[in-house]
Amino acid sequence: MPEPRTPDPLNLPIPGREGEEVELLRTYPANTKRLSTRTRERVRAVDVLYEADARALPVLDVLEERRTLTATQTALPDRSAALVRLFAEHADEIDEQLETHSRDWPLRRMPAVDRAILRLGSAEILFDTEPEQVGAIIGEHASMARELSTEDSPRFVNALLQRIADLKGLLG
């Protein structure tokens, strides 16, 4: 007889050892209240990159959808849209750099949230920052990974973005 499982405090369904499917009843948004306004703008940009990836749509098409105001959401901030456009302009080069420097972690194997965070962070580091701001950018993206992704994600995001920043002079 299987061991009884401790109930989840959030009442989320827990799959058994046999891997049976569970029905997702509701989602719980990340707690972004602790994040600065600038970081929340980055989170909104990550949302667009994540959605485009999940829906297999061009990033700029999803951006255009998010720029319109609907009754259920606020319009995407200008800074978020600018970050999404920055990624879209350099998407192929950014993905190539992430693939090259992620050491045994091809993009397709990365968690989708991490992939979106890394894409945005790489865009800022490679194409939109002053050298003295790079450390703050890496720290903010690691903080986003801590709030939005897995337990190991902050270290992974921090290490990969740091590697890209260290090689920035060699990359372009």
Keywords:
172 residues, N-utilizing Substance Protein B Homolog, Chain A, 58% helix, 0% strand
Account of the 3D structure:
The chain has one domain: N-utilizing Substance Protein B Homolog, Chain A. With 172 residues, it is mostly helical. The protein contains 8 helices and no strands. It is globular, with a radius of gyration of 18 Å. The N and C termini lie far apart (61 Å). Helix 2 (59-67) runs antiparallel to helix 3 and helix 5 runs parallel beside helix 7 (153-166). The model is unreliable at 24-28 (pLDDT under 50).
Summarize the structure.
The chain is mostly helical and 172 residues long. It is built from 8 helices and no strands.
Write the layout of secondary structure elements.
Elements: H1 37-55, H2 59-67, H3 78-89, H4 91-101, H5 112-127, H6 134-148, H7 153-166, H8 168-171
Helix pairs in contact: 1-2, 1-3, 1-5, 2-3, 3-5, 4-5, 5-6, 5-7, 6-7
| Helix count from the secondary structure assignment | 8
pLDDT averaged over residues = 81
The string of secondary-structure elements, in order, is: HHHHHHHH
Q: Could you state the CATH homologous superfamily? A: NusB-like
Count of spatially separate domains = 1
| Rg (CA only) | 18 Å
Number of strands: 0
Main sheet makeup: none
**Share in helix:** 55-70%
Structural class: mainly alpha
